[in-house]
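I am writing to request your help with a piece of structural work I have in hand. The matter concerns a single protein, recorded as an amino acid sequence and a row of C-alpha cells. Could you please explain, in whatever detail you think fit, how the C-alpha cells follow from the sequence? Thank you for your consideration; the sequence and its C-alpha cells are set out here:
>
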Amino acid sequence: MEYAKNRTQMLAPQERERLGDEASALQDAELLADRLAEATPHQIIEAAKAVPGRLAVVSSFGTESAVLLKFVADVDRSLPVLFLDTLWLFKETLTYRDALAGHLGLTDLRVITPSPSELALRDPKRDLCFHDRNACCALRKVAPLARELAEFDGWISGRKRFHGGERSSLAVVEAEGRRLKFNPLARLSSAELNAVFTKERLPRHPLEALGFTSVGCIPCTARPAAGASARDGRWSGLAKTECGIHNRELTASNGAR
C-alpha cells in the first residue's frame, strides 16, 4: 500500500488527476449500476442526463437501433447522437439513418467519418478490411469515435445481454476511463425489443427483410444461418466478435495503430 502511494506521488500532476478521475468514475458506475439494476430504459436515460457533464448517444442505426433512439427521443430529442460512417456502410443504412432520425425528431445527429489523411496513409487501396479486420476497425471506428467523444463525460450505447458473448453480463452502467457508459437496453430480451417495434410502430432497417439480423460494414456483414444468434452475421467465420469501441477505453490516441 505504501509503495502504491509513493508511486502515485511520483506521477505528474496530470497523470494523478487522470487516475483520480478514473477512480471516481469507477465508483460512480458501481453505485449507479446497483441503483439502476431494475430501472426501465427511460429511467436509465434520465439518470444519465442527471449526471454532471456532457452526454452523447452512440448509434449504428442498425437493425435494433430504433428502440434505443425512440427511448432517447422520449426523454430528450436534443441529445447529440453520434453516427459512425466508416465509408464502408450499406447505402440502405444511410437511407435508414436519415429516415429514422426524421421520424423520431432527433435534432442533433452528428456524422463521424475516418480521418482522410489516416485513410490515405494506412488504407490507400481500400483493402485493409480484407487483410486485417482489427486494424480496419481501429482506423475507421475506434479512432474517429474516440476523437469525437473527447468532449463528452458520458455516453449511451444500445448493447443488450441477450446478444451473448462479452455482452451476456453487461452492466447497466460502466466506467470507461474517466467517462460513464450507460446501457439502457441491457436487460431487454429479443421479444421485448420486438414488442417495442410493434407498439411504437418503428420503421425497420431495410436489410432485415433480406435476412440480415445485424448490420455493420459491407465486408464484415453477412446473413446468419437459420437459428443462429442475432450477431452471427458479423465477422462470420472469424474469432472477432466486437469492433473495438466497446472493449477498450476510448482515448484520442488509441485508435491510430
The beta strands are 55-58, 81-84, 109-112, 154-156, 173-176, 179-182. Residues 1-19 have pLDDT under 50 and may be disordered.
